[in-house]
């Protein structure tokens, strides 16, 4: 009985030491991956990296991690080639908030200089203030004596965006912006906003002229690791986006 008790104690101690060593190793790996990701993506702050699954050390021996979760609070994505219907210049970058990605089946090289996930899914948000930059330009002539521009975006409820249009007719500005509900969708690398109906600007206008103002798209390119837009939906604080990808580079 005494020998059995000693063996049990030794097993518990060794198990505890293994757990401690495993957690120290995973903490070091998370910090190293976060630093490399910050450098590779040119981030202003260090992202959160969390390696899931236990034990970590046996995953390392196998050369593949079950799941790695990455969180980036503020990410500036490229908008090269973005258009807003008026041929006006749009910002070269757009800020994406709270980008979180779950990467699964992360295989890494022997020297840990690179890591690639078999699949990745994630979520993020583009604020209405950021998205407005794609639509907002100088007032556009939509008819003789009529100019208009988008001045506000907000949650319209039921997955719609409320688009506010300010117009001036024959030199007189309408007393308040006219609003219209718009649908938001993904087309390739673009977040596309299309009005469900046309706003009443007080005069009869051709639909294609009005849509030069109400309809616009924002290109989102250069997301971390090559992940791409999947779905979008209007939400209270902005447009919520889903992203996905395969063979996604975590580092290297």
UniProtKB/TrEMBL annotation:
InterPro entries per the UniProt record, alphabetical: DUF2993
Protein name: DUF2993 domain-containing protein
The organism of origin for this protein: Streptomyces dioscori
């Amino acid at each position: 009985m005494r020998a059995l008790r000693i063996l049990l104690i030794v097993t518990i101690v060794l198990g505890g030491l293994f757990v401690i060593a495993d957690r120290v190793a995973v903490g070091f790996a998370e910090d190293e991956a976060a630093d490399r990701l910050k450098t590779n993506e040119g981030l202003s702050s260090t992202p959160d990296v969390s390696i899931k699954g236990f034990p970590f050390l046996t995953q390392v021996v196998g050369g593949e991690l079950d799941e790695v979760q990455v969180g980036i609070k503020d990410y500036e994505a490229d908008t090269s080639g973005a258009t807003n219907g008026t041929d006006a210049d749009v910002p070269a970058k757009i800020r994406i908030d709270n980008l979180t990605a779950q990467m699964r089946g992360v295989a890494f090289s022997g020297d840990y200089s690179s890591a690639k996930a078999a699949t990745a899914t994630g979520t993020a948000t583009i604020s209405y203030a950021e998205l407005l930059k794609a639509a907002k330009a100088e007032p556009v002539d939509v008819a003789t004596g009529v100019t208009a521009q988008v001045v506000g975006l907000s949650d319209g409820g039921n997955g719609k965006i409320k688009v506010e249009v300010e117009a001036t007719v024959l030199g007189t500005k309408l007393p308040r912006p006219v609003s219209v509900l718009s649908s938001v969708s993904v087309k390739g690398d673009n977040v596309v906003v299309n009005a469900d109906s046309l706003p009443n600007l007080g005069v009869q206008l051709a639909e294609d002229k009005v849509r030069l103002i109400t309809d616009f798209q924002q290109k989102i390119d250069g997301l971390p690791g090559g992940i791409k837009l999947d779905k979008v939906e209007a939400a209270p604080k902005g447009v919520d986006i889903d992203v996905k990808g395969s063979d996604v580079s975590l580092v290297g």
